Amino acid sequence: MRDCRGDKFSKGVSVLHRQSAKKHARADEKKRIRNRHRKATLRTMLKQTETALDEGNVETAPELCRNTVSLLDRAAGKGVIKKGTANRQKSRLIRKLHILMAEAA
Description:
single chain, mainly alpha, Methane Monooxygenase Hydroxylase, Chain G, domain 1
């Protein structure tokens, strides 16, 4: 478990004394690990979608965009990323997808 205060002298020993503070620290650690996984998954999906859009892959790009937008919405809803960040990334993806589809048509 990480130290809540970020004190470099704690040597891995909990500096928290109250039981409620210790419980919050345990819950925060679980949330941190869960959020790291969600962010990593989101970054991977964004990279895959960007690659498909840049390569002009008309077959897979719409499906990847749809999945990525869904993942962004879920991450924003869970508080992993800010809603404005999710909206901005979705907007950029959709704009690139529309340009790709217009060129393909």
